[in-house]
């Protein structure tokens, strides 16, 4: 995947990288001033994405945001997600089993429907349609598609757009449902007691050691799952009750949103529009299915409808976790489902891919 991104984005030009993040920060601040939901993430994503699609080259280079910088900030979100854990978590998690069982049926069903809809348009080959419709595991499905001989540029765009459309649609949809912008002014308020130096040291250790463990053990989404697990352990054991400072979480949102926005750099506008139409078609299936499951399942499991919708929506684990943080609801429930979604989506794609 790193090779693919380098092929698309090229080597970093650091003055351009700094300017790109400045555009992302400006977009986040404008979105915050406009009271948009999850402003620092969505604002930076939309601002940088628009600059990338427009082909702006203020310093002679397209917008750039190295994935290594994103990797350094993602553990902050993992620690913030884990900070929602409290003693009694395991007993609470038992009640999630019916919902996780429904997810095991939901993922292959929406994948198959999305695949057949995309393939029926005749705009892409069957392999690209299959891997492009996978509702999770962006890196893994793009790698599998490359090995199988899919159209790499279209496949990457379909997966990027699946993620981005979900990130944009879910908070906007919740805002429409509520009649006002959802989330805090900073975009993600993290509950917890004020952090002292010992708390900051514990959380920093969870972030760094968790990242190392997650990558070393090759856990699914290990760069965020490792910090989540160590943060959960620290909070359940009572070593700390604090959460990362709000300004740090907001900074991580800008970095993550900017990294998503630059993925459109250098891509032909015509192909982006084609991919967008196919991704919208697939999104109607996945997001529509998530909404249906949310309303049907919520009364049976004791979770809010919004939490169930968020748990089944096919966004990224990090990004959906951020939205859950912003809404202050069922953070670990949502995170557990997105971890399972990634595992299911990748497994289904690996074992049931069409031939040729």
The tally of beta strands, per DSSP, is 0
Euclidean distance between termini CA atoms: 22 Å
At the first level of CATH, the class is Mainly Alpha
- Would you identify the CATH architecture? Up-down Bundle
What share of residues are in beta strands? under 5%
Rg measurement, Å: 19 Å
Give the structural class. Answer: mainly alpha
Mean pLDDT: 88
Organism: Albidovulum inexpectatum
Protein name: Ammonia monooxygenase
Keywords: Membrane, Transmembrane, Transmembrane helix
Pfam families: AbrB
Report on the structure:
With 356 residues, the protein is mainly alpha-helical. The chain has a single domain (2-351), classed as Na+/H+ antiporter like fold. The protein is built from 16 helices and no strands. It has helices at 2-9, 14-33, 39-53, 67-82, 89-94, 97-120, 126-132, 138-148, 152-178, 197-216, 222-236, 246-261, 269-301, 305-312, 317-327, 331-351. Helix 4 packs across helix 15 (317-327) and helix 14 packs parallel to helix 16. The longest helix has 33 residues, at 269-301.
